[in-house]
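Exercise 7. Predict the joint structure of the components listed below.
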Amino acid sequence: MSDIVLLGDEAVALGAVHAGISAAYGYPGTPSTEILEFLLDYKSRHGAPHAAWCSNEKTAYEDALGVSFVGKRVLVTMKHVGLNVAADPFVNSGLLNIRGGLVLAVADDPGMHSSQNEQDSRFFADFAKIICLEPRNQQEAYEMTLEAFDLSEKFHIPVMLRLVTRLAHSRAIVQVGAKRDENTLSKPDEKRGWMLLPATARQNYLDLLEKEKEMLAWSEDSARNPLENVREGKVYPLGIITSGLGRNYYDENLPELGPDIPRLHISAYPLPADKIRTMASSSKRIMVVEEGYPLIEERLRGILKHDTHISGKLDGTLPRTGELTPEAVRKALKLAPRQLRSAPGMELPGRPPQLCKGCPHIDTYQAINEAIGDDPDAVVTSDIGCYALGALPPYRAIETIVCMGASIGMAKGAAEAGVKRVLATIGDSTFLHSGITSLVDAAAADTPMTVVILDNGTVGMTGGQETILPTSRVHRMIEGLDIDPAHIRTISPLKKNAEENRLIIAEEIDHPGLSVIVSIRECIETAKRDKKKAAQEVEA
Amino acid sequence: MKYDIILSGVGGQGTLSVAAIIASAALKQGLTVRQSEIHGMSQRGGAVVSHLRLSDGTVDSDLIPIGEGDLLLSMEPLEALRHITYLSPSGRLISAAEGVENIPVYPDMNKIREEILAQPGARIVDARSIARDAGSLKAVNIVMIGAASGSIPISKENFMAAIDERFRTKGEKVQEANRRAFELSLAEACGAGS
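Solution:
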C-alpha cells in the first residue's frame, strides 16, 4: 500500500489500472476529462493499458463493448450529458452477457459549473437496470472502481460509477494497492448473450430481470449501504438517508447534532429496499440528503407506506436545484446559522468566463456579425465549446446553444422553415463529435444555409486535447460529401483578413444552397503551450 | 486542528497552482488535505475559487462551510470581496493589490481597497513590487504564499521545500528567485505585524 495525492477523477483512473483494465476510452467533458488524461499519461509512461479519446461518447462506449466481448476489462468515461449520446449502446448493454469487466465512469455536474444541464446519471443506471456505485471521497473512488470491475464480472453487467464535480475535481491522499493482471483474450463460446435480435433480446431481458433480483440481494447486504443507530423497538423523531456527497455535508454538521440519529448511507444501487423499510420503521420522519435529482426521495414513495413523512428536495427542505452545500444541509437540519462577517458595502460586478485574448473565435465572430449586419430575421445557431462564449457581450453573435452538434441540424430546420439567411457555428471537435451527420442531411438536401466550422485544431474548453482528426482530413471529409466545391471556403481569422472574411461569409450566406466555411487558426492557448514545449525541447 | 483556506483569483492567474503548492507543503507537514477546484468554463478569464482544507484529523466536506474559513487568500482584490462570506469573523484576509480589469465596468480600486481594509484581519500585499525586488515578476503568487505563510500552520521549511519542488525543473535561477520572493514577502508580513 502507498499514499498518493489524487483528484477524484485520477483515483478512478488509477483504480481502473489496478483493476487490470486493458483499455480505456472516452470523450473530453468537464468534470470527467482528467480520468482519461491520467490514463493517457500512464500509457505514455508505462506503455499500457491502451487509452484513447474517441469521436464521441457513443463510439467510446462501443469500443469498450468490443473489449469486453473478447474478455478483457475496460473503462469508459464521459460527462453526464455525454451519456445521452452514448445512451443507445449503454442501455442495450444491460441486456448483454458482459464478460471482461466494463465500468462506465460518468461525472455529473450539479450546479452546472461547465454544463448545459444538471441531469442525474443515477436515473440512467436505474433505466438500464444495472448497478451504480456512488463514491463520496477519493479513497472510495479508488476502491469502488476496483469493486465495480468485480461486480461487472460477477453479474455480467456493465457497472456505473457516478461522480460529481466536487469529487471529480477535489484532491486528497489516497491509499492505493497493487495492480492485478489483465484478463486473457477469449471470445465467448455462446453468442446469444451478445446478440440483440428480438428473439434473443427477449431471452436476455428475462435474464436481466433474474440478475436484478441477485443485484438487489447484493445491495441489501453490501457494506456500501451501512445502516447505523437503529435499535429494535426504538422510534426516533428523525432518520436520515444520505447518498454521495450528501453524507459529507451531513457529517460536517454532525458534531452539533448528537450521535444518536438513525442513518442509512446509500452508495450502491439498486436501492436496498429492506434496509430503507427498517430505517423508516424506527423514524417518525425521514430526510433524504442526496446530490442531484431527488431519485432516492422519489423512489421511497414506492417502497414505504404512503403516509410516511419524507423530507428532502421535493418539499423544499433542501434546494431543488444546484449543488448541495454544507450550509443547505445545515439549514435542513435546523441548526443555527453560523455567525457571518458583514458583506462588502458595494455592488460586485460578475466576472463571467470569456474568450481568451487573441482567440481566433473573436475574429470569426466579428466577421460573422459584420456580414450579417443589422438583419433581425437572420438566424445564427451555435454549439457546445469555448465559442459558446460568443453569446456574451461584446459579440452577442449567436442565438442558440443546445447540445453537441445541434447547430447544424437547427440551422437546417430554420432554413427549411423559411428563414433566408441562416448560419451555424460549430467547433472542429464538436463537428466531428456529432455535427457531421447533420451536415450529411444538409448536403443531401442542399439546404440553403452556411456552416462555419471554427477549426482551432483542439478541444479547447476541456484543456486543449487534440481533435480526433487534423484539419486537412476534416476538409477532405467535407469535400467527400459532394458539396459544390465553389462553396467550400477557407478563411484565416486574423485581424488583417477581417474585410476579406466578411466578404466571403456574406457571399456564402447569400448563396441559395449549402455552403461550408472552415475558419482555421490554432487555439491561442494550445499555440502558447506548443511554443513553450518546443522551446523546452530545444533547451534540452 | 483544522485550517480552512479559500483561494480566489481570476482564470489564468495561477490560483490553482497556489493551492497546489500550499497543499504540497501541508502534506510535508503531515496534515490531511482536501483541495477542491473548478475546471472547465470558469477557467477562461472568469472568477476562480479553490477550497483548501487542512486538518490533523479527517476532513468530511470538500467545500468549506460558509463562515468557517480561517484564511481568504486572493490573487485579485475584487475577487477577495466576492468570497468574504466564506471567511469566519475571526479569519484573516490577504489580497494582492493589483486588479485584473478584464470586465467592462471594473469598480473604483480605491473603493475596493477601502472595503477590504474595513474587514477585520485584512491586509493588502503589493505582490508585484515584492516580486520585482525578488528578481522575477512571475513570482507574485509565491509572494502571496509568503505573505500568508505566517498564518498557516505549516513550517517555513515545508513551504520552502514545496516551492523548491514546484520549480525544480525550471532551473536554479528561477528556483532562487521564488525562494527570495517567499522570504522577502514573509519578512515584510512580519514587519506589517501579522
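Discussion. The domain at 2-191 of chain B is CATH 3.40.920.10 (Pyruvate-ferredoxin Oxidoreductase; domain 3).
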